[in-house]
Amino acid sequence: MFVFQTFYDLTDGEIQLIPWKYIPADERKGFVPAYEFSIAPANNAGLVMGKIVLRVGDNENTLYGGHIGYLVKSKFRGNSYAARACLLIRKVAAAHGMKTLIISCNPNNIPSRRTCEKAGARLRDIIEVPPHHDLYQRGERETCIYEMDVQPIGEVGTV
Question: In CA terms, which of 76, 93, 108, 143 is 20 to 30 Å from 44?
Fold first, then answer.
């Protein structure tokens, strides 16, 4: 049985991840449990620069949609905050026994592809999205599948 944990020490000295939502699984929709964190400066938890979601578990949705989803507000882009957040979120994944994380993005989304690479993710494949999947219904026909190792988590690293 899945149990949400509490994480308050997710910082690399420049940014921090602040717990925002705990999203339970919805087996009917094929959704695994997920954490949502705000991305904030390490010295100002009141300023939200974006968010990152970690989906815990593996199924068809995490293959095509990824374990990690992120969004950085436009005025904060270009500072590698999403890549830093991806590195920090590995601590949460490790606490749930995950070994590898998938980050997916549209092949034409060059900034997101660069984020994956900065975070140390490797492009595994570019695959077709099946017509029954929600991404297909939103117009996505292909997705890049990047893989990132959860370990080592002791050293957050720099981007």
Answer: 93
